[in-house]
């Protein structure tokens, strides 16, 4: 198990601060979803949590220790990251792509151990890609490709997985498929999952913990029922809506209204 | 992949693709044939028995031609090509761009500026023996400048390429200015150097270049894995625990060093560094250690063949190898690209 937290984090691009003294603790063994309007800093936060960005002030702590003080390879054995638009090297097969996830477990001496082989095999099975493993990544459909990337993170075998909009550009069926896969990784393998999602209703259904970001700060966090309310959604997204209970899943269901229609 | 085998010995484990290494072996054979041809052919025509006799008695007149003229020159060519090809392969990986070559980062231009400057201003006083050093220094300085200029809390391939092109252009202007304002005899020798030639290569040159190349190869060993991961986006690479900036800097310095020493002894025929990795990738699809070896062998063969062509095609002229690297390499490269585009 591994804990991840942000402590008075301030950072941005050029001179523009995106996150302002943001503090956050992500619950272990749960699925946390970062939500917020475009440009609120949720992707930036995810990148900072994954040590892709250097904080101006404050720090990200992994297992209570500043993430930047630890060797990046050691971090990669605890925390994996799926960026928003990953690009696969040309001509690479699914199995090879998944194998890349084993890098933090390898050394100059041990470049392809039995453990590596087992982990890749399991990741392929788990993501249902065992039949496609010899195919080239660029020949896969969008949904299959996203599963291949998740398989790479699974092969990395980390207790913590960070994903930046893993469902963007997927149709509804494949969005569900990816989210169900992540839920199963959480339930069966005990992974702590932190992801950015745009669809509020899917976020409510699959998240244990929702973190709403607004203007570079944590605006609200907690169970979906606590965070996704009519007032909050208006504050976070500047959007009029009604929130009802999903008749099947009993999670909040947000029905957006146009500015004039409310 | 087909014949990939995993070797495991205690903690040691490797994936070995036999088919790929078999192809490398074949390419090595071809390179050896070119080497032999290069030893056998030249201005002084030798019959087969004469040639064998000369091979056995290095002291005889014909033996001298073989052992002191043709062999060192051919080996020097091979090493220059090998180093440029390896440099090009590394840069194409790190820059994530198939058009990257030692030219792109200003390596060749830097070497040329200092080498020509040396020829024009210093050679008359201190002799031309130190010219390789000047060229290597120029290459390294240029690449350091490019990295410094592109640095903004780290570098990105795109910024490096843009800075490299800018600096190259500037340095070429400086080189041309020095050339134009120098005496005619110096201009000529500088021009031959700029085209790239291994004419007059001797054993001491071969020894130095071989030693430098050997050091670079040893330095590359622990970096091969990282070089193979270099095409990944920074985000993905950091995610799996690669120290991206550190790796990028090391690989670029290594590539610049390789191109620097190659250009120092062989002149500015950096085109090999662009073409040889492409040929190697055509022969071996799969990135890996075998592909690196293939690039090295292809590069060595290209320069040896170009040098041989330069000696044979227009006797009694002994044309610089760089000319034929371009004359044969460029159409070949275009053909390759057209085939790939289809």
TrEMBL record, chain A:
Membrane-related topology note: Peripheral membrane protein
Cell compartment(s), UniProt: Cell membrane
This protein's record includes keyword Kinase: no
Span of domain ABC transporter: 4-240
Keywords per UniProt: ATP-binding, Cell membrane, Ion transport, Iron, Iron transport, Membrane, Nucleotide-binding, Transport
InterPro entries from the UniProt entry: AAA+_ATPase (IPR003593), ABC_transporter-like_ATP-bd (IPR003439), ABC_transporter-like_CS (IPR017871), P-loop_NTPase (IPR027417), Siderophore_ABC-ATPase (IPR051535)
Major subcellular location class: membrane
Protein origin, superkingdom: Bacteria
GO molecular function, one term: ATP binding
One matching Pfam family: ABC_tran
Protein name, UniProt field: ABC transporter ATP-binding protein
Organism from which the protein derives: Salinicola endophyticus
């Amino acid at each position: 198990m591994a804990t991840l937290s942000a402590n008075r984090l301030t950072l941005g691009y050029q001179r523009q601060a995106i996150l302002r003294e943001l503090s956050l603790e992500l619950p272990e063994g749960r699925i946390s979803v970062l939500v917020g309007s475009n440009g609120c800093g949720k992707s930036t936060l995810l990148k900072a949590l994954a040590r892709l960005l250097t904080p101006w002030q404050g720090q990200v702590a992994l297992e209570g220790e500043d993430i930047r003080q630890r060797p990046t390879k050691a971090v990669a054995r605890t925390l994996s990251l799926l960026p928003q638009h990953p690009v696969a090297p040309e001509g690479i097969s699914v199995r090879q792509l998944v194998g890349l996830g084993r890098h933090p477990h390898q050394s100059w001496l041990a470049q392809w151990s039995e453990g590596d082989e087992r982990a890749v095999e399991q990741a392929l099975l788990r993501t249902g890609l065992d039949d496609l493993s010899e195919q080239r990544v660029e020949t896969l459909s969008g949904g299959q490709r996203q599963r291949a990337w998740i398989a790479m993170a699974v092969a990395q075998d980390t207790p913590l997985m960070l994903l930046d909009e893993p469902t963007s550009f997927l149709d509804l069926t494949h969005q569900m498929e990816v989210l169900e896969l992540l839920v199963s990784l959480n339930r069966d393998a005990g992974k702590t999952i932190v992801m950015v999602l745009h669809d509020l209703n899917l976020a409510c259904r699959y998240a244990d913990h929702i973190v709403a970001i607004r203007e570079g700060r944590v605006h609200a966090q907690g169970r979906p029922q606590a965070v996704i309310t009519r007032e909050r959604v208006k504050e976070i997204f500047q959007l009029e809506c009604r929130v009802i209970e999903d008749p099947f899943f009993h999670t909040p269901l947000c029905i957006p209204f146009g500015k004039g229609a409310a | 992949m087909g014949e990939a085998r995993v070797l495991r010995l205690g903690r040691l484990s490797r994936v070995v693709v036999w088919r790929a290494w078999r192809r490398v072996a074949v390419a090595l054979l071809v390179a050896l044939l070119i080497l032999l041809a290069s030893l056998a052919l030249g201005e002084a025509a030798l019959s087969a028995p004469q040639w064998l006799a000369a091979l056995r008695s290095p002291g005889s007149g014909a033996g001298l031609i073989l052992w002191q003229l043709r062999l060192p020159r051919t080996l020097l060519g091979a090493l220059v090509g090998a180093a440029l090809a390896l440099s090009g392969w590394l840069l194409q990986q790190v820059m994530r761009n198939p058009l990257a070559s030692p030219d792109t980062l200003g390596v060749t231009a830097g070497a040329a500026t200092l080498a020509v400057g040396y020829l024009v201003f210093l050679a008359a006083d201190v002799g031309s023996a130190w010219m390789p050093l000047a060229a290597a220094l120029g290459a390294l300085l240029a690449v350091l400048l490019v990295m410094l200029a592109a640095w903004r809390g780290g570098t990105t391939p795109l910024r490096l390429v843009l800075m490299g092109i800018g600096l190259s252009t500037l340095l070429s202007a400086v080189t041309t200015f020095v050339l134009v304002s120098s005496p005619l005899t110096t201009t000529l020798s500088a021009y031959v150097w700029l085209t790239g030639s291994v004419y007059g290569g001797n054993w001491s040159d071969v020894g130095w270049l071989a030693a430098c190349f050997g050091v670079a190869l040893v330095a590359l060993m622990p970096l091969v894995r990282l070089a193979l991961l270099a095409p990944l986006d920074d985000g993905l690479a950091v995610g799996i625990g690669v120290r991206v900036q550190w790796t990028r800097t090391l690989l670029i310095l290594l590539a610049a060093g390789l191109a620097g020493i190659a250009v120092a002894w062989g002149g500015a025929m950096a085109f090999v560094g662009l073409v040889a990795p492409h040929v190697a990738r055509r022969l071996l699809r799969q990135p890996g250690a075998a592909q690196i070896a293939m690039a090295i062998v292809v590069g060595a063969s290209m320069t040896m063949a170009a040098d041989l062509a330069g000696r044979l095609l227009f006797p009694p002229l002994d044309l610089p190898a760089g000319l034929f690297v371009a004359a044969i390499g460029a159409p070949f490269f275009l053909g390759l690209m057209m085939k790939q585009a289809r």
